[in-house]
Design goal:
The structure holds 2 protein chains of 2 kinds.
Chain A (H helix, E strand, L loop, with lengths): L1 H22 L6 E9 L5 E10 L2 E6 L9 E4 L3 E5 L1 E6 L28 H7 L3 E6 L7 E9 L17 E6 L2 H11 L6 H30 L12 H10 L3 E7 L2 H13 L5 E5 L7 H7 L2 E4 L17 H7 L4 E3 L10 H10 L5 H6 L3 H6 L17 E5 L8 E7 L2 E5 L36 H9 L2
Parallel strand pairs in A: 1-4, 1-5, 6-7, 9-10, 10-11, 11-12, 12-13
Antiparallel strand pairs in A: 1-2, 2-3, 5-14, 7-8, 8-9, 14-15, 15-16
Helix pairs in contact in A: 4-5, 4-6
Chain B lengths: L1 H15 L9 E2 L2 E9 L5 E10 L2 E6 L9 E4 L4 E4 L1 E6 L27 H4 L6 H6 L3 E6 L8 E7 L5 H4 E10 L14 H28 L9 H10 L4 E6 L2 H13 L5 E5 L7 H7 L3 E3 L15 H11 L4 E3 L10 H13 L1 H6 L3 H6 L17 E4 L10 E6 L2 E3 L4 H9 L9
Parallel strand pairs in B: 2-5, 2-6, 7-8, 10-11, 11-12, 12-13, 13-14
Antiparallel strand pairs in B: 1-17, 2-3, 3-4, 6-15, 8-9, 9-10, 15-16, 16-17
The chains are: A alpha/beta, B alpha/beta.
Chain lengths: 460, 427
């Protein structure tokens, strides 16, 4: 009898636990004492404390007292900054490209999250607390993306999702979709003209789909049973979400003409916000981007790795910023994501941005681009406690990330860093395999997987 | 008189901006005054003057007479550094990464040591002015791929012909057989990797024996036309350096053994990503190393996240002679930042600075010519507003082989054209 009770009780506990696991990730409390706080949105505050309670920033000021049981962290001589946000990465993903059709809005990288990816830990070691895990750039309209928080250490993919972050979708213009579909498979699009038409057709079909659904609903309301609903399509549902502004377009694009094209298409279909990625020639249409209200997430200095980035400049982020475009600097790489602070600082060499402007490129600006600017991206009361502590200034080459917090929980601590941070250790492997990231594959992680897919599928 | 008037008009036109002015590299006599001279080899000279004449540093110090014909540049508050040297790039050999017809680094075949990087370096590559404005004055341009892809050359980043650019060092490049995976996408089994490694090593040794055999007939009537094998002879005879690309710990050890077994006189190891694992062996073998990129991911998923940053410093501490390279093409300009990360993660600023100046100069046997600020050396140097590893620092003036080179390139021109675009928004 007792045993039975116990079983029921533990069963209940287990159930409760698993429900909690799904609904709630770990949060923490701490008092970060006496640091130089780079709030990003409210300037720099010397000798200032930041109080974190249950994963939220509760107070910022001097001589704050830690509530009982709350750990104090001495940040004397350190810089305290908002956790870095990467608006474009492919870490934490099992797979990146569904390179089989020019339009694949129905697929979702959230179905392929890999919380075991050690790149997440390496990003934390570079002060990065959240990233935009994106679909690749093989298709004009690619798959939906996932905004993740770097809560490394879990085996549950749901734990790294940033609950409540707006849905996003990857678009891609230019060489990549042209190469994969036009050149590779002999189907539209083979040119930038074709890409425009692929997107216009998809949008037009979604509009028809939406209208047909409305017509059906209307008829049903009126008791008319002769009208058929359109055949349910996850692709059309997703495209409808894009047209309704529920799913934000994040578009891989390099050349000025194609950036301009997509803004025209969006105008025609009533989409009034989107974010261009890489946008190496964004600077050439900076006034147009600003007038549209479109954002740009760019590389600090990558260029020349393909023809469409040959006429680019490392001053891109500066020109965009000075023209009033909401700009961020992203990694698109498991390597660059480890030093985005350094990438942001390059705008001081190339164009002389101020510290706050440079820091905004990797904090509040990408947060706004992802629609999470009210929750993270700056050190403000009420925001989520995603915070990085630096020895030295983050924009100095000698600045070193020391501690990285997500939701007030320390996930990286340089002074307490075990060498091996893998979560998926293969017990049969005495020494993990050595490999170098070879030059050829260094750039364009957007095409991750397409070389293989391409060769298997289309070249036999 | 007429001439004077004419030149006055010309002058006026220029200052009015009515004539498009093309900035050219100018050779002459220059006096850089009131600067802090970071000599690298002889400490720091405060409030110093440097005289450049006939392409060389002719005087330097706090008490220097300025020649009458010198163009004086006041460098008050600024610093003078020796030009940075990147010990491994494909700059000038590749223009656009994804377009094979713009790529001249990788010739067909496994054994092509006679392929000359200097032949294919494009002096007008857009990436060259982009690189040098960050203080990188001299780089190794090297062929890639295969076992012996060709002959690398050290070039100065000024000039319009290979002869103008050549900076006095050549070396044969060799890719030591690798027992590692080539990337995350490499799906070969352990056995297949081993098999291929063994095959490559056997092939390498066979080639080497052929070269040794050829050496005995060079210059005799029995010599046949084998430019590939002949290119190797100076390496066998110890007159030419062998740049051996090797990265994995066990491969590094095997390469040390190979070098010792064959009595290679001038070996240089390049890459050396896992040098920290075998630093002691490297130091004992007294083989100099050109490592990099520093900004790269760990070679194994189990490795500490900052190993690539710390690698150069760890090898240096163990007593290895370490230079730093980018292994880049269009972003060789990041060389000072690679050195900066190495400095921050254990190497220290002074050693990291040496690793991109005097150390590579020593490795190439050119330490009497380049790599530091010394009287008599080639005037490869730049003037900066501060520490050139810091991104905030500005490079104000640049001299390569005694030419004052304009701080200008396509990136800067696009900035000037588009910061305030005209037409702007409206037609």
């Amino acid at each position: 009898m007792n045993n039975m009770k116990y079983n029921i009780f533990s069963g209940f506990l287990l159930l409760l636990f698993s429900v909690c696991m799904n609904a709630q990730t770990q949060t923490g409390s701490m008092l970060i004492k006496n640091g130089t706080v780079l709030t990003v949105t409210n300037g720099t505050m010397e000798n200032t404390d930041v109080l974190i309670v249950d994963g939220k920033i509760q107070d910022i000021g001097q001589n704050l007292r830690a509530p009982r049981g709350v750990e104090e962290i001495d940040a004397t001589g350190m810089h305290v900054m908002p956790g870095i946000i990467d608006a474009h990465s492919h870490i934490g993903l099992e797979t990146v490209n569904e390179a089989t059709n020019p339009v694949t809005a129905e697929v979702y990288v959230g179905d392929a999250l890999n919380p075991l990816d050690v790149s997440i830990y390496r990003a934390l070691a570079g002060g990065v607390t959240a990233s935009h895990a994106m679909h690749g750039s093989a298709n004009a309209i690619g798959g939906q993306c996932e905004t993740i928080k770097h809560r490394y250490g879990t085996y549950n993919p749901d734990d790294i999702r940033m609950d409540g972050a707006p849905r996003t979708v990857k678009f891609a213009l230019g060489e990549n979709p042209m190469r994969v579909h036009g050149e590779g498979r002999g189907i539209l699009p083979a040119t930038r003209m074709g890409i425009e038409q692929v997107i216009r057709r998809a949008f037009a079909e979604a509009k028809e789909y939406k209208a047909a659904k409305a017509q059906y609903e209307e008829a049903r309301k009126n008791g008319d049973n002769t009208v058929m609903p359109p055949m349910y399509s996850r692709r059309m549902e997703a495209l409808e979400g894009i047209l309704d502004g529920e799913i934000i377009i994040h578009c891989h694009a390099y050349r000025a003409d194609e950036i301009y094209m997509l803004m025209q298409v969006c105008k025609d279909f009533g989409v009034d916000y989107l974010c261009f990625h890489h946008a190496n020639e964004g600077f050439k249409v900076a006034p147009d981007l600003a007038a549209f209200g479109a954002a740009a997430s760019v590389f600090a200095d990558w260029w020349s790795f393909k023809f469409e980035v040959y006429y680019s400049t490392a001053y891109n982020a500066t020109i965009l910023t000075q023209n009033g475009v909401l700009t961020s600097i992203n990694s698109d790489s498991g390597e660059l994501i480890r030093h985005l602070y350094h990438e942001a600082a390059k705008t001081q060499r190339y164009g002389g941005l101020t510290d706050d402007e440079a820091l905004a490129l990797i904090t509040i600006n990408p947060a706004k681009q992802l629609g999470i600017g009210d929750r993270v991206g700056s050190i403000e009361k009420g925001k989520e406690a995603d915070i990085t502590i630096f020895k030295g200034h983050p924009l100095s080459i000698y600045g070193i990330p020391m501690k990285t917090n997500v939701d007030g929980v320390i996930y990286f601590d340089r002074e307490n860093d075990p060498n091996d941070m893998r979560l998926d250790v293969n017990p049969e492997e005495a020494m993990p395999a050595f490999f170098l990231d070879i030059q050829d594959y260094k750039h364009e992680n957007c095409m991750h997987g397409t070389y293989q897919t391409f060769n298997t599928l289309f070249r036999g | 008189m007429i001439r004077n008037i004419l030149s006055l008009i010309c002058c006026l036109l220029f200052t009015q901006g009515l004539v498009a002015q093309v900035d050219k590299a100018q050779k002459g006599t220059y006096a850089l005054t009131q600067a802090t001279l970071v000599t690298v080899t002889n400490g720091i000279i405060e409030n110093g003057t440097m005289v450049i004449r006939d392409g060389r540093i002719t005087a330097m110090g706090s008490n220097v007479t300025i020649p009458e014909d010198a163009t004086t540049i006041n460098c008050s508050g600024h610093f003078i550094y020796p030009g940075f040297i990147d010990g491994g790039t494909t700059l000038g050999l590749v223009e656009i990464g994804s377009i094979s017809l713009t790529q001249d680094a990788n010739e067909l075949g496994d054994f092509t040591p006679h392929m000359q990087a200097l032949t294919a370096v494009n002096p007008n590559s857009v990436a060259i002015p982009v690189t040098r404005v960050n203080g990188v004055t001299t780089v190794i341009a090297q062929p890639t791929g295969g076992l012996f892809p060709g002959t690398a050359a050290l070039i100065n980043l000024v000039g319009y012909t290979p002869d103008q650019m050549y900076a006095g060092f050549k070396g044969i490049v060799m890719n030591f057989p690798s027992s590692g995976k080539r990337g995350w996408w490499d799906r070969r089994s352990e056995e297949d990797v081993k098999k291929e490694y063994d095959k490559n090593l056997k092939n390498l040794n066979k080639l080497w024996d052929q070269v040794k055999m050829f050496q005995t007939v060079t210059g005799t009537d029995n010599e046949t036309y084998r430019p590939d094998i002949k290119a190797m002879v100076p390496v066998v005879e110890g007159d030419m350096a062998l740049l051996i690309e090797v990265n994995k710990d066990s491969d590094i050890k095997a390469a040390i053994q190979w070098v010792q077994d064959r009595g290679i006189k001038k070996p240089i190891f390049t890459g050396v990503a896992e040098g920290w694992r075998v630093a002691k062996e490297l130091a004992e073998a007294k083989i100099p190393v050109i490592t990099g990129p520093v900004l790269s991911t760990p070679t194994r998923p189990s490795d500490r996240y900052d190993r690539p940053y710390a690698n150069a410093g760890l090898m240096h501490k163990a007593g290895v002679k370490v230079a730093i390279r980018t292994n880049e093409t269009e972003n060789v300009r990041n060389l000072p930042f690679n050195a900066g990360f190495a400095a921050a993660y254990g190497m220290g600023v002074e050693e990291a600075l040496k690793a991109i100046t005097i150390t590579p100069a020593e490795i190439f046997g050119l330490d009497s010519q380049i790599g530091s600020l010394e009287v008599g050396k080639v005037a490869n140097l730049f003037v900066s507003t501060g520490d050139p590893f810091e991104m905030k620092t500005e490079i104000k003036y640049l001299f390569i082989a005694g030419y004052q080179v304009p701080i200008d390139n396509r990136h800067i021109q696009l900035y000037e054209e588009f910061l305030e675009r005209s037409p702007g928004l409206k037609n």
